[in-house]
Amino acid sequence: MSSWIDLRAVWEIVVVGLLAGAGLPALFAIGLRALGTPGKGHVKISDDELVGGSRAGIPIAAACFAIVLAAIGYGIYIVVISGHGAK
Amino acid sequence: MSNDVVLALVIVTGLSFDFTNGFHDTANAMATSIATKALGPRAAVALSAVLNLVGAFLSLSVAATIANGLVSTGLVTLAVVFGGLAGAIIWNLITWLFGIPSSSSHALIGGIIGATLAAAGSHAVKWQGLVSKVIIPAVLSPFIAALVATVGTYLVYRIARSMREGSRRHGFRIGQVGSASLVSLAHGTNDAQKTMGIITLALITNGTLAGGATTPLWVVVLCALSIAGGTYAGGWRVIRTLGKGLVEIEPPQGFAAESSSAAVILLSTHFGYSLSTTQVATGSILGCGLGKKGAQVRWNVAGRMGVAWIITLPSAGLMGAISYFIASAVGGTAGILVDLVLLIGISAAIYWRSRSTRVNRKNVNSDWTGTVAPSRAGVTP
């Protein structure tokens, strides 16, 4: 490994960056879509209504949003720990 | 005794730089949210300011890089640090006047390196640290951010394409509040630390701290407050260029761009890379234009930014060197004072110049007509 460029760090930033920076937004999108899926017997909803009322949709959405929030929390935790622990 | 006066001047100038860093970079976190109206301009800068403040306390990895990794602390004097800061502030103000989202970090590093070269010659610069911790991340980070944002935007549109237009816009605006908050927090972790690093360097130079020392708490607190204050002031000119000039942004794109920026900045902070949050944000915004079919990317605006990126390090370096030469030609505390008067004069002139083409929270979202300041006729409420 060259001392001028830390390839491992670059690689890690790309991979983790894709997972967190593109994967989490995708998961959020899945959550939004599940949340907005219209449920049975649903009559009429306004155009910008977020909750569609699907029975399966709401728990899926909750799970997606929970994973996103947990991942963000974990990420910040790691930065804080390493940013003060290491000299 | 006079050394203490100089040290105080250096610290105040450092905090002033941090303030310009804040308002120059509000755009990185909030430009897309303001452009998509996910947040009102006033609320956006307030939220960003608070989160920058919090972020500044989260990590010290980058401060360590700046304080100990770039120049030989033994060969640097307070006049060098002051010269570097003065150069950085002037370059930040010039680019702000033109609404160019250039890197505050490069302005700072360029200024310090330029002043160091002028004072002690090339052996005082730790070239390897400069290349591996600053130059390489600078070259790579916009591309990584653009890649992540392109993939993110593509996925988000793919997944959300069956959603109703209104609920999609509504949902992703809410998402944007979260993602923009994270960028602000990440900005605090990376950029606030740069000034902390420089002030730590000044304290080491002065002998107040031992070489290799970590940043004292009072420095962290003062820097956090300065960058938050600057952020709240809001660099509307740069916000406008990033939010309206580069790509016309919809909420899902803004959300994807901000998520990408937050992830890349936080990861880099983690590795102690002092990367340019500005360049990451710009890369992400370009990426969110590339990832959506039919989105228009204004490459001429991007090209102008690219030029500014390349010349920021050398230009700030040149200004840092000039202000060091002026200070050392006059000599001693008087030299620093002459520099200070010049710095205040130039800053005031730039501010005065900016008044004739104002951009503020009222016209920041006016349609892009090719210039930073919207034409009077084009002002929308």
Describe the overall structure.
The complex is a heterodimer of chains A (87) and B (381). Chain A is an all-alpha fold and 87 residues long. Chain A has one domain (7-39, 49-85). In chain A, 68% of the residues lie in helices and 0% in strands. Chain A contains two helices and no strands. Chain B has helices at 2-35, 41-56, 61-69, 78-97, 104-120, 127-160, 165-205, 217-233, 236-245, 251-270, 277-290, 299-330, 332-355. By secondary structure, chain B is an all-alpha fold. Chain B is globular, with a radius of gyration of 20 Å. In chain B, helix 6 (127-160) packs parallel to helix 11 (277-290) and helix 7 packs parallel to helix 10. Chain B contains 13 helices and no strands. The longest helix of chain B is centred in the middle third of the chain and has 41 residues, at 165-205. Chain B starts with a helix and ends in a 26-residue tail after the last helix. The chains are: A mainly alpha (87), B mainly alpha (381). At the A-B interface, helix 1 and helix 2 of A face helix 6, helix 7 and helix 10 of B.
Summarize the entry for a quick read.
The complex is a heterodimer of chains A (87) and B (381). Chain A has 87 residues and is mainly α.
Secondary structure layout:
The complex is a heterodimer of chains A (87) and B (381).
Chain A: H1 7-36, H2 57-85
Helix pairs in contact in A: 1-2
Chain B: H1 2-35, H2 41-56, H3 61-69, H4 78-97, H5 104-120, H6 127-160, H7 165-205, H8 217-233, H9 236-245, H10 251-270, H11 277-290, H12 299-330, H13 332-355
What Rg of chain A, in angstroms, do the CA atoms define? 19 Å
Largest sheet of chain A: none
The topology string of helices and strands of chain B comes to HHHHHHHHHHHHH
Question: Based on the structure, what is the oligomeric state of the protein chains?
Answer: heterodimer
Shape of chain B from CA axes?
globular
Q: Structurally, how many domains make up the residues of chain B?
A: 1
Distance between the termini of chain B: 55 Å
Quantity of strands of chain A, as a count:
0
